Amino acid sequence: MLFLKSGSIPLLATVLTVNAAVTQYPAKALVDSTNSQFGPFIEGTAVDDEGNVFAVNHGNSARLATLGQVTPQELFYEDKTTKGTSFNALRFFVKDDKTFAYAADYVNHRVVELTINDEDITSKNFCSSPDMIQPNDLALSRAGLLYLSGARWRPNNQAGDGDLWVCSPEGTPKRLELLGRTNGIELSPDDKSLYLSEAANRNGGPVSNKIWRYDVDPSTGAISNKKVFFDFLKIRTQNIDIDGMRTDIKGNLFVTRNGGMEVLKFSPNGDILASIKTTFTFPSNIEFGGPNGTTLFIVGRCGINTPHGHGVGCVDTWENDAPGRAWWILQDNE
Length: 334
Hints:
Layout: H1 11-18, E1 24-26, E2 28-31, E3 46-47, E4 53-56, E5 66-69, E6 74-78, E7 87-95, E8 98-105, E9 110-117, E10 120-128, E11 137-140, E12 146-151, E13 162-167, E14 173-179, E15 181-187, E16 193-202, E17 205-216, E18 223-231, E19 241-247, E20 253-258, E21 262-266, E22 272-277, E23 282-289, E24 295-301, E25 313-319, H2 325-330
Parallel strand pairs: 1-22
Antiparallel strand pairs: 2-25, 3-4, 4-5, 5-6, 7-8, 8-9, 9-10, 11-12, 12-13, 13-14, 15-16, 16-17, 17-18, 19-20, 20-21, 21-22, 23-24, 24-25
């Protein structure tokens, strides 16, 4: 949820002003409040090898252990085995002609592995640690390395309110770093760079939002050479939270501004290439899907300034000029 400091100018005016020189594109509504079967906590978008896109919170606001397919809108999976399961992120993986999905359960500090065989889905606890803050979001490498972010919301954040973990292909967790409040996480197309958002609150609202980029060893998962990729102080929108992030095969990074009614497209060098305007205020996550992998699906709770936890989940779409990284990898491309 976005909080503005007293005396600041209205949110939408801020976004439009700072991005006035950036090309703006309107997203199209695919699922709206009149036909949505998702709850207000919709996010965690992920694509499978057929281009189908999925999201968490299929159902109402109380159904947090559910995963749903976006088109058509239908229940994909519901965890009924572990108390308090609350999914927040999802990724698909194909290995040895078998399809798996990894779902982040932020309440139970674990990642659940789903083995998918047509209509039959079995689950097991894949990677977990009581020391994980959540996890919040996931990034998945070609080799099966899972990177996890976590976020602890406080009115006044401090160091250690966010973390970065990696899970080996066998499910062994390792904490890589403690940070401020982390959220969006994604890999570059060659798996050699990792993007991670970090934010901080003061007096109940965001006052800092930036994206870090790390060098990655694709074989071991080790990170190094941490650098600022983009600091939103530069365009005076540091008070708008980053949420989900995804890359396309050109290496462009797409970033949701949760509260800013937009998704920003960055070049690999950190230049803003485009602003994609959503039909709702709080876009939470994104993923590329569709038959060619070029359709950007943007999810979030419907409406303009709908309060946190209220309403239903919406989905917008926008056509990109290149397929998304996850879709491309699932087609067995190098």
